[in-house]
Amino acid sequence: MNTEDFAYIVETGKSFDEAVVSVLRAVEQKGWSLFQIYDVRERLAAKGFSQGPLKIIEICSGKHAHQFLAKNRLVSLCMPCKINVLEDRGKVSIAGMRPAMISQFFPEISPAEAAQAERDILEIIDSAR
Fold it and tell me: CATH number, domain at 50?
């Protein structure tokens, strides 16, 4: 399995902070809900560890969440969806897990249903790019 099998990653010419704001705007425009934003660099710095900029943005679509949970509540292990903004070697990337993977772990979720959620995630990332 390759990273591309489970993650969608794009580089952006935006600064780290601009990319975070772009993701938040794209999430709102798509009608998804923002759950939480984790500043990993800040949290690790508080413990004495040094890391480059990394924010984990947790988001959720009520429609997809309801549909998946109605079939198997353990799908909640894959929720909420996450879009990460990270800076590495001066390059800013936006990455998200491909929800299509859910149907491989939970056969109750059809590949077509999981692909609908994935299209939303990819659109959010491409819009934020």
Answer: 3.30.310.70
